[in-house]
Write a structure and sequence with these properties.
alpha+beta, 5-stranded antiparallel β-sheet, 25% strand, 3-stranded antiparallel β-sheet
Length: 197
């Protein structure tokens, strides 16, 4: 993995005060969109790569940012060298299937991803392997999904989880049913009727 120190030490030249970020123009290494108006500078290293960093001039606070809108040939080369961009194409929607072990512990971890620079892009449910891939062009979240318990409690818990996650992915609330995968912990008559609805 490239480091800021390595880039700084191998820079042939640096363009200071190169500009200010525009909406949806940059992401960080975690795929989070960089807000508008952040000053940045550009390093050109001796291996002919171009690297953007926060701050008008280089400092200990500088962080690498990845330009996803209007990348130059230098930047395309640099990013493709450092990340396997083809892996982004292999992030596919998956539907989790809770196992007995999940029901025994009462919950399952669920993972979601969305293209980082497009708030209207579809939200994909993905598996843990894709979640752990280094994919800077995707924003990702994980949630803890309650599987068992009293119906009203499970709905309450999962609704809270959905609402919290919607702060990152606003449209997620339209995709998830808080009763999905629910099984009552005690099979009362009311629970059985509810599960058959």
């Amino acid at each position: 993995m490239i480091t800021i120190e390595k880039i700084h030490n191998n820079s042939d030249f640096v363009i200071t005060n190169a500009g200010f970020t525009k909406p949806n123009e940059f992401v960080d290494f975690d795929g989070a969109t960089i807000k508008k108006g952040v000053p940045y500078h550009i390093h050109y290293t001796n291996d002919k790569q171009e690297w953007y960093m926060t701050g008008g001039v280089h400092s200990n606070e500088s962080k690498i940012i990845i330009r996803i809108e209007g990348r130059s040939r230098y930047a395309n080369y640099a990013v493709s060298r450092e990340f396997d961009l083809s892996k982004d194409n292999y992030i596919k929607a998956t539907s989790p299937i809770p196992q007995n072990d999940d029901y025994n512990k009462g919950f399952i971890d669920r993972y979601f991803a969305r293209q980082a620079n497009d708030e209207n892009a579809p939200i994909l449910e993905i598996n843990v392997e894709d979640y752990e891939l280094q994919t800077p062009f995707y924003k990702k979240i994980t949630i803890e999904w309650t599987l068992v318990g009293k119906e009203s409690d499970v709905i309450k818990e999962n609704t809270k989880v959905i609402n919290d996650a919607a702060l990152v992915f606003p449209k997620l609330s339209k995709l998830l049913n808080p009763k999905q995968f629910w099984k009552p912990s005690m099979m009362t008559i009311d629970d059985v009727r509810s599960s058959l609805r």
